[in-house]
Write a structure and sequence with these properties.
Length: about 375
């Protein structure tokens, strides 16, 4: 059970299906800030060979953990799904009040927490407490393609077959939601006119997200969570609504939506699709299945970096100042070897240094999207 604005939301799983997180009988301990920064998150496309191997080894080990371990890859994916496929109820006695970590000001801090514990678990699995979750640097031209590290299909733990084959080798389109019918542009390089055009458009999308629409904390981070918020795009901040969502849909393989009849027919109906592979092979394309693709976590590492840049360089600072937001807390599992519950509040995660990580300063020296002029 998690606390949002001092109310508790509970995971309900009437059909006995996953993915309600496993219940541990112990009470959570409070999160304690880390004493120093030991982890520097780097861009995936610039990782050394050695770091690439570490990343693969860690994810392979996480995938090999038994599902009962709340820090196994299967359980991690299930946590994300539980928080966006109506398993959590704001008030279990009231109908139609599903709880969701998307579409509101919960988005940025919740995902920061989630990938923080994921990153720590990966480090623990390879016995390296400097291991930091690499980010998919889609806001710079050289990173505007699915990173090759995730593409090799031969025994690669970072590979996921459920991606859109027409987009995996193409230049990413950060405005894909407004552009779904556009032809994919090959990731060729600056001599191609269409390539140049889309790169510029992408940079301007990031500029708009971070600067033009990033004025004001709620405009960037999202609006206050309300039980009837549904999946409304108007309550999302620009951080969630723009490049983040576009990348999800762009990577996910096209196909029937999880709620469609075609999908139910193929999977045995909601919520059975949680068993044995979810969602008509879309993975990244739908929130409920996104956590099944290892790329999700490096995508969110960059979304988190966008928040970090907004806070530290673009004047956003601590963000929202309302106590309701600052005191909202969630419980996560920490420690792969003997998982224990930790309660962590939004106010604990406003400065990444308290979480023991930061972002590679070199790749932030030149942010090409700052030069976009609209
Ligand atoms: Cu919880 Cu990118 O979504």
């Amino acid at each position: 059970a998690d606390k949002v604005n001092e109310k508790t939301v509970q995971c309900t799983d009437p059909a006995g299906q996953l993915p309600c997180p496993l219940v541990s009988p112990t009470d959570p301990v409070d999160f304690k800030p880390e004493s120093k920064v030991t982890r520097i998150r780097q861009p995936v496309h610039l990782l050394s060979r050695e770091y690439q191997e570490k990343y693969k080894e860690a994810v392979a080990k996480m995938k090999a953990l038994p599902e009962e371990n709340p820090l196994s890859f299967a359980a991690q994916a299930a946590i994300h799904q539980a928080y966006c496929d109506a398993y959590y109820k704001y008030d279990p006695t009231a109908k139609d009040a599903p709880f969701d970590v998307h579409f509101s000001w919960i988005f940025a801090p919740w995902h920061r927490m989630y990938i923080y514990f994921y990153e720590r678990a990966l480090g623990q699995l390879i016995g390296d407490d400097t291991f930091a979750l690499p980010f998919w640097n889609w806001d710079t031209p050289a990173g505007m393609v699915v990173p090759p590290l995730f593409k090799d299909s031969m025994g690669n733990p970072l590979y996921d077959p459920n991606r859109n084959p027409s987009n995996v080798d193409a230049l990413v389109d950060l405005d894909y939601l407004n552009d779904r019918n556009a032809e994919p542009i090959p990731f060729k390089g600056p001599r191609d006119e269409k390539y140049k055009e889309l790169v510029n458009k992408n940079l301007c999308t990031v500029y708009t997200q971070q600067i033009r629409s990033g004025k004001g904390a709620e405009s960037f981070l999202g609006e206050k969570y309300c039980t009837d918020i549904g999946s409304s795009t108007s309550s999302m901040g620009s951080l969630e609504r723009m490049a983040h969502t576009a990348v999800h849909v762009w990577v996910g393989k096209a196909g029937p939506t999880p709620s469609s009849e075609a999908c139910s027919a193929a999977t045995g109906g909601f919520p059975n699709h949680t068993k044995g592979g979810y969602s008509c092979n879309n993975d990244m394309g739908f929130l409920g299945s996104a956590g099944h693709d290892p790329l999700f976590y490096s995508h969110h590492s960059n979304v988190d970096r966008m928040w970090h840049i907004w806070s530290t360089r673009l004047g956003g600072g601590q963000g929202i100042t309302e106590a309701d937001w600052l005191d909202t807390s969630f419980v996560f599992y920490d420690d792969v070897k003997s998982p224990r519950k930790v309660r962590i509040r939004f106010r604990d995660v406003l400065d990444t240094r308290d979480l023991g990580y930061t972002y590679d300063a070199e790749s932030d020296k030149d942010l090409p999207w700052l030069r976009c002029k609209i």
